Amino acid sequence: MKITLTRHTLLRELSLLDKVVDNKATIPILQNVLLTIWPAGTASFAAMNGSESVLSDDIAATSVETDGPAQLALPADLLHSLARVIPDGEVVIEATKKTHAELRAGTTKIKLPLANPDDFPRFPDVSATIATVPAGQLREIFKQTRYAAGYATKIGINSPCLLVELDTEIRAVGVDSARLALSYRPLETPLAEQRTMVLPARGVAVLEAILAEVDGTAPVAISADENVACFRVGNRLISTRLMAQPFMAWRKVLPKNHTTVVEIPREPMLLALRRLAVTTELRANNRTVKMAIGDGLITLSTSGHDAQGEDRVPVVIKGPDLEVVFNLNFVAEYFALMQTETINGGFRTASDVVEFGPVDPGVTSVIMPMRV
Fold first, then answer.
1. 171-202 tens-digit pLDDT
2. From 3.40.640.10, 3.40.30.120, 3.10.150.10, 3.40.50.300, which CATH number describes the 255-367 domain?
Protein backbone atom coordinates (compact mmCIF):
# COMPACT_ATOMS: atom_id res chain seq x y z
CA MET A 1 0.00 0.00 0.00
CA LYS A 2 1.21 3.49 -0.85
CA ILE A 3 -0.05 7.04 -0.53
CA THR A 4 1.25 10.29 -1.98
CA LEU A 5 0.22 13.63 -0.49
CA THR A 6 1.68 17.09 -0.10
CA ARG A 7 3.98 18.02 2.76
CA HIS A 8 1.60 20.87 3.63
CA THR A 9 -1.29 18.44 4.09
CA LEU A 10 0.79 16.02 6.13
CA LEU A 11 2.18 18.73 8.41
CA ARG A 12 -1.23 20.33 8.93
CA GLU A 13 -2.83 17.08 10.06
CA LEU A 14 0.08 15.97 12.23
CA SER A 15 0.31 19.37 13.95
CA LEU A 16 -3.31 19.01 14.99
CA LEU A 17 -2.94 15.40 16.13
CA ASP A 18 0.17 16.34 18.11
CA LYS A 19 -2.13 18.11 20.59
CA VAL A 20 -3.72 14.75 21.38
CA VAL A 21 -0.85 12.27 21.21
CA ASP A 22 0.69 11.42 24.58
CA ASN A 23 4.32 10.44 23.99
CA LYS A 24 4.50 9.14 27.55
CA ALA A 25 1.41 6.96 27.25
CA THR A 26 1.69 3.66 29.09
CA ILE A 27 -0.21 2.01 26.21
CA PRO A 28 2.35 2.00 23.35
CA ILE A 29 -0.19 2.16 20.51
CA LEU A 30 -1.35 5.58 21.73
CA GLN A 31 2.05 7.00 20.80
CA ASN A 32 1.09 6.46 17.15
CA VAL A 33 -1.18 8.06 14.58
CA LEU A 34 -3.51 5.87 12.58
CA LEU A 35 -3.39 6.53 8.84
CA THR A 36 -6.23 4.97 6.84
CA ILE A 37 -5.91 4.88 3.04
CA TRP A 38 -9.06 4.59 0.94
CA PRO A 39 -9.17 3.30 -2.67
CA ALA A 40 -11.17 6.38 -3.72
CA GLY A 41 -8.04 8.49 -3.32
CA THR A 42 -8.54 9.94 0.13
CA ALA A 43 -7.10 9.29 3.57
CA SER A 44 -7.97 9.80 7.22
CA PHE A 45 -5.69 10.58 10.15
CA ALA A 46 -6.54 9.71 13.75
CA ALA A 47 -4.96 9.94 17.18
CA MET A 48 -6.15 9.48 20.73
CA ASN A 49 -5.04 9.42 24.33
CA GLY A 50 -6.83 8.21 27.42
CA SER A 51 -9.45 10.97 27.19
CA GLU A 52 -9.45 12.72 23.82
CA SER A 53 -9.48 11.60 20.20
CA VAL A 54 -9.32 13.41 16.87
CA LEU A 55 -10.31 12.00 13.50
CA SER A 56 -9.70 13.89 10.25
CA ASP A 57 -11.36 12.13 7.33
CA ASP A 58 -11.74 12.78 3.60
CA ILE A 59 -8.19 14.17 3.31
CA ALA A 60 -7.31 14.56 -0.37
CA ALA A 61 -4.28 12.56 -1.53
CA THR A 62 -2.33 13.04 -4.74
CA SER A 63 -2.51 9.29 -5.39
CA VAL A 64 -3.11 6.03 -3.54
CA GLU A 65 -2.23 2.42 -4.34
CA THR A 66 -4.29 -0.06 -2.36
CA ASP A 67 -6.73 -2.86 -3.12
CA GLY A 68 -9.04 -1.85 -0.29
CA PRO A 69 -9.06 0.21 2.89
CA ALA A 70 -5.62 -0.09 4.48
CA GLN A 71 -4.27 1.16 7.78
CA LEU A 72 -0.82 2.10 9.05
CA ALA A 73 0.03 2.89 12.68
CA LEU A 74 2.96 5.30 12.43
CA PRO A 75 5.08 6.82 15.25
CA ALA A 76 3.48 10.21 15.86
CA ASP A 77 6.39 12.18 17.28
CA LEU A 78 8.90 10.95 14.70
CA LEU A 79 6.54 11.51 11.77
CA HIS A 80 5.64 15.01 12.97
CA SER A 81 9.32 15.91 13.42
CA LEU A 82 10.06 14.70 9.89
CA ALA A 83 7.14 16.61 8.39
CA ARG A 84 8.59 19.84 9.80
CA VAL A 85 11.98 19.43 8.08
CA ILE A 86 11.48 17.45 4.85
CA PRO A 87 11.45 19.39 1.55
CA ASP A 88 8.25 20.97 0.27
CA GLY A 89 6.39 19.08 -2.39
CA GLU A 90 5.02 15.56 -2.52
CA VAL A 91 5.57 13.01 0.22
CA VAL A 92 5.25 9.27 -0.35
CA ILE A 93 4.49 6.85 2.51
CA GLU A 94 4.70 3.20 1.49
CA ALA A 95 4.41 0.06 3.57
CA THR A 96 7.37 -2.07 2.57
CA LYS A 97 6.88 -4.75 5.24
CA LYS A 98 4.38 -5.47 8.00
CA THR A 99 6.81 -3.96 10.47
CA HIS A 100 8.16 -1.00 8.50
CA ALA A 101 7.13 1.77 6.12
CA GLU A 102 9.22 4.09 3.99
CA LEU A 103 8.80 7.85 3.76
CA ARG A 104 10.20 9.59 0.67
CA ALA A 105 10.34 13.34 0.05
CA GLY A 106 12.71 14.83 -2.50
CA THR A 107 16.11 13.27 -1.87
CA THR A 108 15.10 12.14 1.63
CA LYS A 109 14.28 8.52 2.41
CA ILE A 110 13.35 7.44 5.96
CA LYS A 111 12.51 3.97 7.28
CA LEU A 112 9.70 4.12 9.85
CA PRO A 113 8.64 1.41 12.32
CA LEU A 114 5.01 0.29 12.21
CA ALA A 115 2.77 -0.76 15.07
CA ASN A 116 -0.18 -3.10 14.70
CA PRO A 117 -3.16 -0.95 13.63
CA ASP A 118 -5.55 -3.55 15.08
CA ASP A 119 -4.32 -2.53 18.54
CA PHE A 120 -5.67 0.99 18.07
CA PRO A 121 -8.70 1.57 20.33
CA ARG A 122 -12.10 2.10 18.78
CA PHE A 123 -13.42 5.62 18.56
CA PRO A 124 -16.41 6.64 20.70
CA ASP A 125 -19.76 6.06 19.02
CA VAL A 126 -21.94 9.03 19.95
CA SER A 127 -23.96 9.67 16.84
CA ALA A 128 -27.09 11.66 17.74
CA THR A 129 -26.61 15.44 17.41
CA ILE A 130 -28.18 17.35 20.28
CA ALA A 131 -27.25 20.91 19.18
CA THR A 132 -25.56 22.80 16.37
CA VAL A 133 -23.60 26.00 17.02
CA PRO A 134 -21.66 28.24 14.58
CA ALA A 135 -17.91 27.75 14.99
CA GLY A 136 -17.35 31.46 15.53
CA GLN A 137 -19.79 31.56 18.45
CA LEU A 138 -18.28 28.51 20.12
CA ARG A 139 -14.80 29.96 19.63
CA GLU A 140 -15.84 33.21 21.32
CA ILE A 141 -17.60 31.43 24.17
CA PHE A 142 -14.51 29.39 25.00
CA LYS A 143 -12.23 32.42 24.73
CA GLN A 144 -14.45 34.47 27.03
CA THR A 145 -14.55 31.83 29.78
CA ARG A 146 -11.46 29.64 29.64
CA TYR A 147 -9.20 32.39 31.00
CA ALA A 148 -11.04 32.22 34.33
CA ALA A 149 -10.27 28.51 34.71
CA GLY A 150 -6.67 29.49 35.38
CA TYR A 151 -5.48 26.46 37.34
CA ALA A 152 -7.01 23.87 35.02
CA THR A 153 -5.60 25.61 31.94
CA LYS A 154 -2.08 25.79 33.35
CA ILE A 155 -1.75 22.14 34.26
CA GLY A 156 -3.26 21.19 30.92
CA ILE A 157 -4.34 17.65 31.78
CA ASN A 158 -7.61 16.00 32.69
CA SER A 159 -8.78 18.61 35.16
CA PRO A 160 -12.21 20.29 35.03
CA CYS A 161 -11.99 23.37 32.85
CA LEU A 162 -15.40 24.49 31.57
CA LEU A 163 -18.99 23.72 32.37
CA VAL A 164 -21.17 23.73 29.23
CA GLU A 165 -24.97 23.86 29.52
CA LEU A 166 -27.36 23.44 26.61
CA ASP A 167 -31.09 24.29 26.73
CA THR A 168 -32.51 27.42 25.10
CA GLU A 169 -28.94 28.75 25.15
CA ILE A 170 -25.44 27.43 25.09
CA ARG A 171 -23.61 28.58 28.22
CA ALA A 172 -20.02 28.08 29.24
CA VAL A 173 -18.71 28.78 32.73
CA GLY A 174 -15.09 28.90 33.87
CA VAL A 175 -14.11 29.33 37.52
CA ASP A 176 -11.12 29.39 39.80
CA SER A 177 -10.74 30.38 43.44
CA ALA A 178 -11.15 34.12 42.80
CA ARG A 179 -13.23 34.64 39.66
CA LEU A 180 -16.01 33.34 37.45
CA ALA A 181 -16.58 33.91 33.74
CA LEU A 182 -19.91 33.27 32.03
CA SER A 183 -20.61 33.47 28.29
CA TYR A 184 -23.87 32.54 26.59
CA ARG A 185 -25.63 32.64 23.21
CA PRO A 186 -29.15 31.57 22.16
CA LEU A 187 -29.50 28.24 20.39
CA GLU A 188 -31.25 28.31 17.02
CA THR A 189 -33.09 25.10 17.97
CA PRO A 190 -33.79 24.94 21.74
CA LEU A 191 -33.48 21.62 23.55
CA ALA A 192 -36.46 20.01 25.24
CA GLU A 193 -34.39 19.36 28.37
CA GLN A 194 -31.08 20.71 29.62
CA ARG A 195 -27.86 18.86 28.85
CA THR A 196 -24.82 19.56 31.01
CA MET A 197 -21.20 18.55 30.50
CA VAL A 198 -17.92 19.37 32.23
CA LEU A 199 -15.07 19.51 29.71
CA PRO A 200 -11.43 18.84 30.67
CA ALA A 201 -8.71 21.39 29.96
CA ARG A 202 -6.98 19.35 27.25
CA GLY A 203 -10.24 18.64 25.44
CA VAL A 204 -11.04 22.36 25.34
CA ALA A 205 -7.53 23.16 24.04
CA VAL A 206 -7.82 20.62 21.21
CA LEU A 207 -11.25 21.89 20.20
CA GLU A 208 -10.05 25.51 20.24
CA ALA A 209 -7.17 24.59 17.92
CA ILE A 210 -9.61 23.15 15.39
CA LEU A 211 -12.09 26.03 15.71
CA ALA A 212 -9.26 28.50 15.01
CA GLU A 213 -8.82 27.01 11.52
CA VAL A 214 -12.41 27.08 10.26
CA ASP A 215 -14.77 29.78 9.06
CA GLY A 216 -16.89 31.32 11.80
CA THR A 217 -20.12 30.33 10.05
CA ALA A 218 -19.18 26.65 9.84
CA PRO A 219 -21.63 24.53 11.89
CA VAL A 220 -20.36 22.56 14.87
CA ALA A 221 -22.52 19.52 15.60
CA ILE A 222 -22.47 18.59 19.30
CA SER A 223 -23.38 15.13 20.53
CA ALA A 224 -22.93 13.59 23.95
CA ASP A 225 -23.80 10.77 26.25
CA GLU A 226 -23.10 10.39 29.96
CA ASN A 227 -19.37 9.88 29.48
CA VAL A 228 -18.26 11.43 26.18
CA ALA A 229 -18.90 14.60 24.18
CA CYS A 230 -18.23 14.77 20.44
CA PHE A 231 -17.85 17.83 18.23
CA ARG A 232 -18.04 17.48 14.43
CA VAL A 233 -16.48 20.42 12.56
CA GLY A 234 -16.32 19.92 8.81
CA ASN A 235 -14.26 16.80 8.17
CA ARG A 236 -12.94 16.61 11.72
CA LEU A 237 -14.43 14.80 14.68
CA ILE A 238 -13.20 15.55 18.21
CA SER A 239 -14.26 13.54 21.22
CA THR A 240 -13.43 14.16 24.84
CA ARG A 241 -14.25 12.21 27.96
CA LEU A 242 -16.44 14.22 30.31
CA MET A 243 -15.37 14.93 33.87
CA ALA A 244 -17.25 13.11 36.59
CA GLN A 245 -16.50 15.69 39.29
CA PRO A 246 -19.47 17.92 40.15
CA PHE A 247 -19.08 21.55 39.06
CA MET A 248 -19.66 24.34 41.55
CA ALA A 249 -23.15 25.84 41.91
CA TRP A 250 -22.12 28.85 39.88
CA ARG A 251 -25.48 30.64 39.92
CA LYS A 252 -25.12 31.14 43.67
CA VAL A 253 -21.94 33.13 43.03
CA LEU A 254 -23.62 35.74 40.82
CA PRO A 255 -24.19 38.85 42.97
CA LYS A 256 -27.60 40.48 43.29
CA ASN A 257 -28.90 43.87 44.36
CA HIS A 258 -25.86 46.02 43.57
CA THR A 259 -25.72 49.17 45.70
CA THR A 260 -23.23 50.94 43.41
CA VAL A 261 -23.23 50.61 39.62
CA VAL A 262 -20.41 52.18 37.63
CA GLU A 263 -20.36 52.69 33.85
CA ILE A 264 -16.68 52.30 32.92
CA PRO A 265 -15.14 53.25 29.54
CA ARG A 266 -13.35 50.05 28.58
CA GLU A 267 -10.29 51.30 26.69
CA PRO A 268 -9.29 54.16 29.08
CA MET A 269 -9.64 51.73 32.00
CA LEU A 270 -7.55 49.06 30.28
CA LEU A 271 -4.80 51.54 29.37
CA ALA A 272 -4.70 52.88 32.94
CA LEU A 273 -4.38 49.35 34.34
CA ARG A 274 -1.56 48.54 31.94
CA ARG A 275 0.32 51.70 32.87
CA LEU A 276 0.02 50.99 36.58
CA ALA A 277 1.06 47.37 36.12
CA VAL A 278 4.56 48.66 35.43
CA THR A 279 4.83 49.90 39.02
CA THR A 280 4.02 46.49 40.53
CA GLU A 281 6.23 43.46 40.90
CA LEU A 282 6.68 41.91 37.45
CA ARG A 283 6.79 38.37 38.80
CA ALA A 284 3.99 38.76 41.31
CA ASN A 285 0.93 36.61 40.74
CA ASN A 286 -1.15 38.84 43.00
CA ARG A 287 -0.54 42.34 41.70
CA THR A 288 -2.99 44.56 43.53
CA VAL A 289 -4.83 47.68 42.43
CA LYS A 290 -7.02 49.80 44.69
CA MET A 291 -10.13 51.31 43.12
CA ALA A 292 -11.52 54.37 44.89
CA ILE A 293 -14.95 55.09 43.40
CA GLY A 294 -16.40 58.56 43.88
CA ASP A 295 -16.78 62.08 42.47
CA GLY A 296 -17.32 60.77 38.93
CA LEU A 297 -13.96 58.98 38.92
CA ILE A 298 -12.35 55.64 39.53
CA THR A 299 -9.00 56.46 41.11
CA LEU A 300 -6.61 53.55 40.62
CA SER A 301 -3.54 53.20 42.81
CA THR A 302 -0.75 50.62 43.01
CA SER A 303 2.50 50.26 44.85
CA GLY A 304 5.63 48.15 44.49
CA HIS A 305 9.02 47.98 46.15
CA ASP A 306 10.43 50.76 44.00
CA ALA A 307 7.46 52.76 42.73
CA GLN A 308 3.91 53.86 43.43
CA GLY A 309 1.35 54.78 40.82
CA GLU A 310 -2.01 56.51 40.50
CA ASP A 311 -4.33 57.01 37.54
CA ARG A 312 -7.87 58.30 37.14
CA VAL A 313 -10.66 57.24 34.80
CA PRO A 314 -13.84 59.36 34.43
CA VAL A 315 -16.94 57.17 34.96
CA VAL A 316 -20.69 57.42 35.58
CA ILE A 317 -21.55 56.39 39.16
CA LYS A 318 -24.95 55.43 40.54
CA GLY A 319 -24.80 54.77 44.28
CA PRO A 320 -22.54 55.46 47.26
CA ASP A 321 -18.75 55.81 47.11
CA LEU A 322 -16.53 52.89 48.09
CA GLU A 323 -13.01 51.46 47.83
CA VAL A 324 -12.19 47.96 46.58
CA VAL A 325 -8.87 46.14 46.07
CA PHE A 326 -8.47 43.68 43.18
CA ASN A 327 -5.90 41.47 41.54
CA LEU A 328 -4.83 43.85 38.76
CA ASN A 329 -4.18 41.00 36.31
CA PHE A 330 -7.72 39.63 36.69
CA VAL A 331 -9.40 42.95 35.94
CA ALA A 332 -7.06 43.80 33.05
CA GLU A 333 -7.54 40.37 31.48
CA TYR A 334 -11.32 40.76 31.38
CA PHE A 335 -11.23 44.31 30.02
CA ALA A 336 -8.77 43.19 27.32
CA LEU A 337 -11.08 40.39 26.17
CA MET A 338 -14.15 42.59 25.76
CA GLN A 339 -14.69 44.75 22.69
CA THR A 340 -17.47 47.10 23.83
CA GLU A 341 -17.03 50.81 24.53
CA THR A 342 -18.30 50.62 28.11
CA ILE A 343 -18.56 47.96 30.82
CA ASN A 344 -20.79 48.15 33.88
CA GLY A 345 -19.38 47.24 37.27
CA GLY A 346 -21.78 46.21 40.00
CA PHE A 347 -20.51 46.69 43.59
CA ARG A 348 -21.93 46.20 47.08
CA THR A 349 -19.19 46.44 49.72
CA ALA A 350 -15.40 46.24 49.73
CA SER A 351 -15.56 42.54 50.62
CA ASP A 352 -18.37 41.37 48.29
CA VAL A 353 -17.76 39.89 44.85
CA VAL A 354 -18.02 42.35 41.97
CA GLU A 355 -19.81 41.74 38.69
CA PHE A 356 -18.44 43.22 35.47
CA GLY A 357 -21.04 43.00 32.72
CA PRO A 358 -23.16 41.62 31.26
CA VAL A 359 -21.60 42.70 27.98
CA ASP A 360 -23.43 42.09 24.71
CA PRO A 361 -23.85 39.46 23.25
CA GLY A 362 -23.65 37.73 26.63
CA VAL A 363 -20.52 37.85 28.79
CA THR A 364 -20.27 38.33 32.55
CA SER A 365 -17.29 38.20 34.88
CA VAL A 366 -17.38 37.95 38.67
CA ILE A 367 -14.19 38.78 40.58
CA MET A 368 -13.49 38.37 44.28
CA PRO A 369 -11.88 41.44 45.93
CA MET A 370 -8.59 41.03 47.76
CA ARG A 371 -8.07 41.65 51.43
CA VAL A 372 -4.95 43.66 52.20
1. 999 998 899 999 999 999 999 999 999 999 88
2. 3.10.150.10
